[in-house]
Amino acid sequence: MEQYPIKIYLAGPDVFRPDAKEYGRILCQLCKKHGAVGLYPLDSELQEISGQTIYEANRDLIDQSDAVVANLNPFRGPSADAGTIWEVGYACGKSLIVVGYTEEIRTYAERATETTQNQPEGWTIESFGLTDNLMIPCSLDNLVKTVEEAIVEAVRLVKFY
Length: 161
Prior knowledge:
Blueprint: E1 6-11, H1 20-33, E2 36-39, H2 51-63, E3 67-71, H3 82-93, E4 97-101, H4 108-114, E5 142-144, H5 147-160
Parallel strand pairs: 1-2, 1-3, 3-4, 4-5
């Protein structure tokens, strides 16, 4: 009996890297190494490039996936990339396995207090010792340090469930 290939959507701001397509190939090779098929946002062939078509293509890739591996390293501020956070939330809403990774060891509160510009005076910053706003790490099936660890964990969890 042939086993259905595990499909992992590779979420993160990596699509903005100067070598984004090549890096996506590397991520997909890591998935293959661990028995999965990587679905990378830049792999979609779009007839028209617009915000709407990119959104729909990425959402469709998540819909095809068994799991999401999300790069949750801080991006352009103290928190993870906003688009990646949306993808994590969407995947959670679909009851997919979601594994995040970040090399950042400081807490969200530590990073957020370093960024004082645009913070309303007197407002608090949550301080639960987590890597990001509590809604992000608390929604994950696991949080690890590297992309390869995240892929291995996603494959393991999909097979377990």
